[in-house]
Design a protein that fits this description.
Radius of gyration: 20 Å
Number of strands: 2
Distance between the termini: 69 Å
Strand order of the largest sheet: 1-2
Helix content: 55-70%
Oligomer: single chain
Strand content: 5-15%
Number of helices: 8
Order of helices and strands: HEEHHHHHHH
Shape: globular
Largest sheet: 2 strands, antiparallel
Length: about 180
């Protein structure tokens, strides 16, 4: 038990250890939690992309999302796949909330509202249903927010919604989304 406690304390110390990057004149602090969040995000996106694009479960999930009635007629148990899809999305939301909560050291029922709204902007920017588009949209919004001058930091959240508004006007399907063609 003593070794396990020591292991947990060591792991916690490594997890909170700040790193630095940049130049000697202007160091950029990088916290270990940021590296952990990045590594977990890359792993989750890779697994999710593989799951959706290359497995029977992913193909069935896409079929149910496209047309549940036709999927049911083709022998796919739509109720099971709907429940499994909610399970996967709930797991991902819980994991994301845990990672963000550990990063900002805030826990409460309302701390994620701003992140959820920015997530909407990321999804619209990248294209609904496109995992690579969501990743690219997140990078774009993050980089644009990072370049907001310090004097205007109160307007940092408005940048994401300005991008959302412009994207809805210019290209409503997003960067990687497909234009929906309706047959009459």
């Amino acid at each position: 038990m003593r070794k396990f406690t020591l292991f947990l304390l060591t792991l916690t110390a490594i997890y909170l250890l700040p790193l630095t990057s940049g130049t000697a004149d202007k160091p950029i602090p990088i916290r270990t939690v940021q590296i952990v969040i990045f590594a977990v995000s890359v792993a989750i996106v890779t697994v999710l992309t593989y799951l959706i694009n290359f497995t029977k479960f992913g193909k069935a999930m896409q079929a149910v999302a496209e047309d549940a009635t036709t999927s049911s007629l083709l022998g796919i148990d739509t109720e099971t796949y709907i429940v499994l899809t909610f399970f996967v999305s709930s797991f991902l939301a819980g994991l994301a909330g845990s990672l963000v909560g550990s990063s900002v050291s805030i826990a409460g029922p309302y701390f994620g509202i701003a992140f959820g709204l920015k997530g909407l902007a990321v999804i619209v920017l990248g294209g609904l249903g496109s995992i690579p588009g969501a990743v690219l949209g997140g990078f774009i919004i993050g980089l644009v927010e990072a370049f907001v001058p310090g004097d205007f930091s109160a307007y940092k959240d408005a940048v994401a919604f300005a991008i959302l508004f412009i994207m809805l006007l210019v290209r409503p399907q997003g960067l990687f989304g497909r234009r929906l063609i309706q047959k009459v």
